[in-house]
Amino acid sequence: MLILAWIGGLAVLTLVFQSLLEARLNPNTEPPARVGQDGRHEVVLERNAQGHYVASGLIDSAPVIFLIDTGATDVAIPEALADRLRLERGRGGVSQTANGAVAVWPTVLGRVRLGSIELNDVRASIVPSMGARDPVLLGMSFLRQLEWSQRDGRLTLRH
Predict the structure, then answer these.
(1) Theoretical Cys-Cys bridge with 45: which of 49, 100, 136, 155, CB 3.0 to 4.6 Å?
(2) Is the Cβ–Cβ distance between 87 and 136 less than 8 Å?
(3) Which pTM does this prediction carry?
């Protein structure tokens, strides 16, 4: 019985610490959304422990984790996610990234949602070198359609 109690206690501690680590990585699992005074949708994101803006969202109807990346030209999607979403691939090419040249396939996302902000027909790149569990890089093909500002560890997006 003592061994079972220890195993049960360790399982509970593992679950508690796992949820704490996930909250540190993604403090925006349900991004707060509001309508501004001008009637535009606003989403406010908190910076994570590493200083990045990470948030949960949707591509079409699939839940994803976004990493806001103003240095990315397009939304960048791991190949495994693209396969799950059955995204059509355009003609392959090469893209320059911070880590060098990578193979990519252009595609278009039917619907991208972050909090209450939803955009249709967003240009994206399928990147086979990204890991299956990597976050989707929410690049400028999405962000340039929004007004955004950063202040005191918060990123406010408006559409």
Answers:
(1) 155
(2) no
(3) 0.82
Q: Where are the domains of the chain?
A: 28-158
What tokens does 145 get? 């359609």
pLDDT in tens, the chain (159 residues): 778 666 766 565 555 445 444 545 799 999 887 887 888 999 999 999 899 999 999 999 999 999 999 999 999 999 999 999 999 999 988 888 777 888 899 999 999 999 999 999 999 999 999 999 999 999 999 999 999 999 999 999 999
Cα separation, 11 vs 26, whole angstroms: 22
DSSP string over 123-148:
EEEEETTS-TTSPEEE-HHHHTTSEE
Give the class (CATH, top level) of 28-158: mainly beta
Cβ of 34: how many Cβ atoms within 10 Å?
Answer: 12
**60 touches 120 (CB < 8 A):** no
